[in-house]
Amino acid sequence: MNPTPTTGDELPADVRDLIDVTQHEELGEFPVERGYVFTSCASVENGNPLFWDDAVAAEVTDGPIAPPTMLSVWFRPHHWAPGRAGEKLPLQVHFDLKARFDLPEAVMSDNTIVFYEPVRPGDVLTTCQRLRSVSAPKTTKLGTGRFWVIDVEYRNQRGELVGVESYTGFGYRREAS
Amino acid sequence: MRLLSEIRAGEALPELRHDVTPTTVVLGALAARDWRPMHHDYRFATERNGTQDIFLNTPNQAAWFERYLTDWSGPLGRLGRMKFRMAGSVFPGDEMVFAGNISSIDTDATGCGWAEIDVQLRVGDRVCTTCEARIALPIDDNDNPWARRGEQWRP
User: Fold this and answer.
1) Where in the sequence is the domain holding B145, given as residue range(s)?
2) Which domain holds residue A24?
3) Given an 8 Å threshold on Cβ–Cβ distance, is B85 in contact with A109?
4) Touching check for A26 and chain B: CB below 8 Å?
């Protein structure tokens, strides 16, 4: 696959107008909590004492923290919630683009995460998404579609930056067999 | 604890091997709150996505890379940045092999010590994911990268 996205005049105006615009500012649906920290560590057999031993956490990180790579976990919506009409989707800009270009399938090809202030149990994070680029149509072994790059910024309840994720996605339509 | 002074560019990290089962994939997806069906529904994965089975999701792969790196660094190792690229999927029945190599070391303007590490997640001869990681390591016995805040932390 060629993940090099470009922007240019070939983009529809409504999509071009969204480049670098802050979208989908949201508050996390629940405070950061240790149950998920333990489940995540168990899923990869991560025995780092920072997450299991309060004395080590107190000495090294001034108290418990969450594994840095759990950043996106705190923003994945509940699969169901009372009063919610339809499924709420994480990384909404990605799904907006799939719908906009009528591309039923998608994969993520690249992911960059930059970690800033540690995330701690009890933190309530906010996030926003910014579309950075959309490529011209491209054909890969998966099908024909477009690459796009989306940044997700995370801040804690004090407004401190805790992380920035950058996703490269490829929305596509499978070739008819 | 691993100090910056104890490592050299070009050094290899010990390999980590893990046999992937359906539980690995499903537990990893649930731990990441990722409810998408290709990570737990065989028929969806094979018939809709066209893959051979359910497969490890991206956030859980990130958690595997973090575990691999901090197993090596010890708890004072602090991740600054990870860039990973998925070239292929990891399925139940695969044996994952994580292998890493230190590409460079440096100390930034604030005095923070950094190691740049290239990690590969392989299954057999197939490279499934590559990861370029930047991890801060203590420069001496009195240093703690986790104590850095604001301008003193430049990941």
Assistant:
1) 4-152
2) 13-173
3) yes
4) no
Instruction: Identify any residues that bridge with A132 across adjacent strands, giving them in sequence order.
Output: none
| CA distance, residue B1 to nearest chain A CA (Å) | 12
pTM, entire model: 0.89
Find the closest chain A residue to B86 by CA distance.
Answer: A109
Please give the distance of CA B127 from its chain centroid, rounded to a whole number: 14
Across chain B, what does the average pLDDT equal?
96
- Measured CA to CA, the distance from residue B105 to residue B116 in angstroms comes to 6
Measure CB to CB from residue A109 to each of B62, B65, B86 and give the nearest one: B86
Q: For chain A, what is the domain count?
A: 1
Q: Is B130 on the interface with A (CB under 8 A)?
A: no
Whether B31 contacts chain A with CB within 8 A: yes
The residue in chain A having the minimum alpha-carbon distance to the alpha carbon of residue B138 is A60
**pLDDT mean by block of 10 residues, chain A; 177 residues:** 52 94 93 97 98 98 98 90 81 93 90 96 96 94 94 96 95 82
pLDDT tens-digit series, residues B123-141: 999 999 999 999 999 999 9
Contacts of B91 (CB under 8 A, 6+ apart): B20, B25, B51, B52, B53, B54, B55
Q: Indicate the residue type of B47.
A: E
pLDDT, tens digit, 9 for 90 and up, residues B67-121: 999 999 999 999 999 999 988 999 999 999 999 999 999 999 999 999 999 999 9
Residues of B within 8 A of A110 (CB-CB) are 83-86
CATH code of the domain in which A36 resides: 3.10.129.10
B149 inside 8 A of chain A by CB:
yes
Which residue, chain included where needed, has tokens 């990861």?
Answer: B131
